[in-house]
TrEMBL record, chains A, B, C, D:
<dbReference type="InterPro" id="IPR006034">
    <property type="entry name" value="Asparaginase/glutaminase-like"/>
</dbReference>
<dbReference type="InterPro" id="IPR036152">
    <property type="entry name" value="Asp/glu_Ase-like_sf"/>
</dbReference>
<dbReference type="Pfam" id="PF00710">
    <property type="entry name" value="Asparaginase"/>
</dbReference>
<keyword id="KW-0378">Hydrolase</keyword>
<dbReference type="InterPro" id="IPR027474">
    <property type="entry name" value="L-asparaginase_N"/>
</dbReference>
<feature type="domain" description="L-asparaginase N-terminal">
    <location>
        <begin position="4"/>
        <end position="154"/>
    </location>
</feature>
<dbReference type="GO" id="GO:0004067">
    <property type="term" value="F:asparaginase activity"/>
</dbReference>
<dbReference type="InterPro" id="IPR037152">
    <property type="entry name" value="L-asparaginase_N_sf"/>
</dbReference>
<protein>
    <submittedName>
        <fullName>Asparaginase domain-containing protein</fullName>
        <ecNumber>3.5.1.1</ecNumber>
    </submittedName>
</protein>
Length: 163, 163, 163, 163
């Protein structure tokens, strides 16, 4: 029941502290910490395919078309997409109804993996299980909950994805 | 769709390095790192109820009866149990068929949470999703995979739960 | 040979990731991670006294007067000051020649303590030893080296304090 | 004022959790985490030379002769030795008076570097400064304090090196 791929698009999960600018930045294009996250998780099976490296606030319709294209073209039926939390809801609604018999699960993190004490491992661990157990469709998994595209909503006060 | 509780029983997940004996030990009875793990995961919703604090190699039939009793008595329908990996398969088979309409998911870790670079967050994150998405029954979730009681088996060579 | 105090002033060492603004920020006034750093270092002896909580780029002559006042008034003869790296050189030169028979050592970090994989523990560990072993005067200790006030200089290319 | 080398001999600092035996073990001979510790500390200057990889309780007179030989033969005048805490006092007294005009500083850790929340970086940071600031002789630096060979003593109750 593997048949699972992780597509990475950037977002907070993959940011790190930059000494020179003293800010959080994404690495060079297609650089992702997801393989290291999986190594620590001791789960070596999902293939990881970086498709872009963006702050999700910079994501345009063209980027969402590119993500949809990647979901369709990969051979796996179960797809996890790592994504910034800022516009995860928009991408979920964009993909909704267009992904055929695939189970697609968006996830991300509120604190970068590279900073430690991050929710990244917990969220990706949940998304990988959701992608294997849920029926075809588009979902988001954040902080222990499964959301349908209409229910994905980051609470700006708590910084969490609450129902 | 919360209605979820985490019962903790000890195991590697909750061990830590002891300066004096230079070995890995469990804390005092009922001490667990799961609340701290959930804080980092930024998922505050599951209630955590410690029921014992044991290396799973020391677990007896009486302990398994105690776990079963706790599963039955808690009001939640979705139950995650943190458990040592050494005898997780025995407890899964012990519980199998006795838990009514509850969804029960065993999980644990191969490296203690307190040592960093642990699979604990990833595994618990997966188990929490599995407990909400799978039909009633007994399962184990380890390192990105869902196992039925007959399929739970730690590979002593790889230290992983492989199919 | 203790007779040592740590005065904290803020700087990168004490910044942390803020979920809402997605930037690195200092906590509320006088909040510092130095006591937690000392707990991990298992060195409980230095008294920690927060005197301000500033990005060192925002530090004015008035703040430097306040630091000098604190150095003079504390009863300890050996003083470590945690400080942002951006203007550590200016504060070192400001204090130089004004601190009597005290040994004063400035230190800081290029990556926040709270982000993990930080140089904070290493730098503070070095500064505490320098404050006990060097003759009276003003110094900076960063990344394994001792600098006199004239030699404190952050290399903007390497992000290190090179000779 | 560099002219500094770090000789590694093993000890708790370099242990890690082993999944299969569930205990703390040293890696293969001459494997050490000190280069990674220095990378995080952003201090690239000290040469690191592994000379053995032992639990210090297994250290014999022959091993101490080997350490003394290494101290004498390296070209650097300032020498830090990473060492297990169990017999650091014996090695300090063995080396005392035999190291000519070199400044030799023993250090170690009470919690392995690889387990996180370790005192290793703090201790090595202090030892590197001590080796540059103290006159020739043999010392130990642990948890913020400098000890002469006669004063090195691990308190079995607190797990610290107290005066």
């Amino acid at each position: 029941m593997e048949n699972l791929v992780i597509l990475t698009t950037g977002g907070t999960l993959d940011k790190d502290h930059d000494t020179f600018t003293e800010s959080l930045v994404l690495g060079a294009e297609n650089v992702t910490n997801v393989p290291e996250l999986l190594r620590i998780a001791r789960t070596h099976f999902p293939r990881v395919q970086p498709i872009m490296s963006l702050d999700s606030l910079d994501m345009t319709e063209a980027h969402r078309e590119q993500i949809l294209g990647a979901v369709k073209i990969v051979p796996e039926q179960h797809v996890v997409i790592t994504h910034g939390t800022g516009t995860m809801d928009q991408t979920a609604r964009f993909l909704d109804g267009k992904t055929g018999d695939k189970t697609v699960v968006l996830t991300g993190a509120l604190r970068p993996f590279a900073l430690g004490k991050s929710d990244a491992g917990f969220n990706v661990g949940g998304a990988i299980i959701a992608a294997q157990t849920l029926p075809p469709g588009v979902y988001a998994v954040m902080n222990g909950r499964v959301f349908k595209p209409d229910g994905v909503k980051k609470d700006p006060k708590s910084g969490r994805f609450d129902l």
